[in-house]
Input
Amino acid sequence: MKTDIRENIVQLEKHRLWIETIGEQGEKLGIDEIDLRNVDLSQYPLDQANITDCNFDDMDLINKDISSSLLCSSTFISANLEGADFCKSNVSYVDFTNANIKAARLADSECIETVFVKADLSDANLVAGLFAKADFRNAVLFNTDIRLVTFEGVLLNGAILTGIRGIEEAFIKSINIGTPEKPIILMDEEARKWLQNKSLSNE
Output
């Protein structure tokens, strides 16, 4: 990954100006394959940006606005994303393994083959998001809001689903309660009933 921090700062400054002037000045952020772990992102907006295949592992991005951005193939492994806003972002192929995503907003987001293994999504807002072949194995979805969500081929083995909300209004096409190697696929109403039972469980 490219690691010229000074060049990254210049690009982030241009993006901040672009946001502040509603596109009249500065330049929309477009970065690829950048390791951002040594950059202090606290003062820079990350919304409405193209940030692909970048590294945010272990970073503290609590309450960060990353909405309406293209984040495909980036990694947020073990990052603190509590309260972060990914609304209307494309987070397909992103790796959130072991991340803290409590109370974050993934509403209207696109999550194709997104990895949430062992991530904590307690109280998160997933409303109207698309989750296709997303991997929630051993994730925590305590009190997570899934109204109008589309689940298709979603892996849920070992996930804690207690108190999950909006199941009746979700579009549950298929879920995999097995493993990628040995799938156990539940379809439509069978999948919905399984989720409802899990939402009432204390496991």
Notes: The chain has two helices and seven strands.
